[in-house]
Amino acid sequence: MAMFFSDFAANLGGPTNPLYALHEQLSTQGHNIVDLVRGNVNEHGIVYPPEILQEILMRAADLARVYRPDSLGQLAAREAIAQYYGTLRIPAEQILITPGTSVSYWYCFKLLAEPGDEMLCPQPSYPLFDYIARLAGVEMTHYRLVESRQWAIDLNYVENQITSRTRAIILISPHNPTGMVADEQQLQGLAEIATRHSLAIISDEVFGEFLFGPDAFPRIAATDAPLVFTLNGFSKMFALPGMKIGWMGVTGDTALVKKSMSALELISDTFLPVNEMAQFAVPEVFNRGQNFLARYKEWVTECRTAALASLEGIAFARPRGGFYLTIPISDDEERAARSLLEKSRILVHPGYFYDISPNHLVMTFIDEPDSLPAHFAEIAVCVRSPLLS
Ligand SMILES: Cc1ncc(COP(=O)(O)O)c(C=O)c1O
Asked: 16-47+291-388 domain in CATH 3.90.1150.10?
């Protein structure tokens, strides 16, 4: 029976990418494949201490027994998040709890844009965006990160990409997949552009705990940008993606913040999508998770160090934050990724998956610590002389 479907539903799918077709074939044949794409720390034994989490959830279930929703999210949770930001001063009434950063993006798009309006996001980009943008009916336009400058933001380019339909600039720092961390000067420049063009900034800080330098984490909310949405959540921070706790902190010009909060409250109230038990658990997840977080950060740093040791002598921008790295290669990237999968059973992505050109490999260094040097040694061989691997 013929029936009308939205463009989104009607145009789903398409042919399976050849790399994933090969992945499926090898998996079906029973081969074990090392996935250097997902970056899921849980799979490597990094989990929030289960006995502590159990106690926290038991207590949270008790607190949530009588349903009294708050459309911004439970106050206790928002106060704990406000405390996390410390001197940045994002008060609880300027925080909205969401079921994750992806949903926070969708809320921001719905708040700021009409169908066809543009969101200016970094290139290399993160593939999830395209889907969120399509679902929200907005267009993604791109600004450049410059590989030869540690993937720094090209501020002139940002400004040149702004049109009369641009509604916000998306900042991802630490950036997935380049590992770029924007410094204060870059953030200042971005804030000035946002002011000149009356644009909001959506700042994705999900990798903000994972930094590999001595510096404190520079945040765009500390600048004079007119309106900033600071996005984060428990997914990466406490390795709790299944808890579905995210948030956005809204800062900037008082009237713009007020307007944003009342609209966001209504959007959120329409769905009330965040599990109440998870919300009541937020303060204790912060309070009792600090030792775990310290160990987890150390573990991520060790993974990075081991991966970089195996890649010594190879020219690429070392990641300054996050879980990912991006390496330029001389050979065809698709052939190299295929060869790694076929011969070494290692899955990495070709750069074009992230709008990087030409010829890069993208991967996470989140991996089994014992086998990480061997896996990255294979990658090093492939990058140095791809046809031999
Ligand atoms: C840069 C970036 N932002 C957001 C997300 C999604 O976060 P959440 O799990 O909170 O939806 C991811 C997930 O990998 C990510 O890499």
From this structure: yes
